[in-house]
Amino acid sequence: MKKNDKLVWVAGVQVREDQVQGRLQALARGHNLKAQLAADQKEEERKLADKGYSPSEIFCLRHANRIKTLENMGFGTITRCYRGKRST
Length: 88
Known about the structure:
By secondary structure, the chain is mainly alpha-helical. Strands 1-2 form a two-stranded antiparallel ribbon.
C-alpha cells in the first residue's frame, strides 16, 4: 500500500478504492451463505418435528451435531457441556 492510496470505509473496514467491489461481493456472499444455513436449519428442525422429536430433543441433537463437526474439523474433544434453557 502506498501513502497516496485513498482508503474507503466498507462495513467497518478500511479498504483501498480498487478493493471496494471485491469487499462488497464478499459481504454479499456471506449474507447469502448465512441465509442458506438458516433456511437449512429451519428445514431440518421441521423434519425432526415431523418425526415426533420435542423441541428440547431437537436442541440436543443440534448440539451433538455441532460437537461432531468441531471434532471432525480437528478442534479436539469438547470437555465442557453447554446447558441450554429448557422449554416446557
